[in-house]
Amino acid sequence: MFPEFETYLKEQESLSNDDIDMMRVKSIEKTLRRKEILVHQGEVCRYKIFVTKGLLRSYTTREDGSEHIMHFSPENTWFTDPESFANAAPSNYTIEALENSEVILWTKNDLRYLVNSIPGLKAYFDALIYKAGTTLRHRIHSAISSTTEEKYEEFIKKHADIYARVPLHMIASYLGVTRETLSRIRRAYTIGK
Q1: Could you read off the pLDDT of 107-126 as tens digits, one per residue?
Q2: Which fold has domain 2-118?
């Protein structure tokens, strides 16, 4: 698992071998089975997660059992519930493996140590946070101003890899529409191509 992360990290940031070794020592490697829960809604999210293989999702479950997917995280992406992780507060989300997955985990204390010890790592994480904030703002804007058809088309363009890996009802949940509505839109989209 760690060799994949090391390759990714060297492509993103110029860190020394000693810096990467320090990250390795503080890391926890974990293999998840498909449908395995890493964090249950109501538990504290104790880890910053890097996905080296597979696909994770975060979602909330309402009292009626319906799910609302907030985020998908495929290979080479960072993942966590930021509020729960930062504040040691109960998470509003469940984090689940949608496929057999391999992840690397860091605790808050270990990540803080690494950021304080490795020059450049703070700037790297600041850039990740900025990018995540920009993505979130774009998603909110799209949710309140785009038609369902536009949201669907944007999802296919931006997340073609995820689109091919998850069932339609999960895409509908992510977009905030019913499966029936998305099926109708998908048929119209396919015919129009």
Answers
A1: 999 999 999 999 888 888 88
A2: Jelly Rolls (2.60.120)
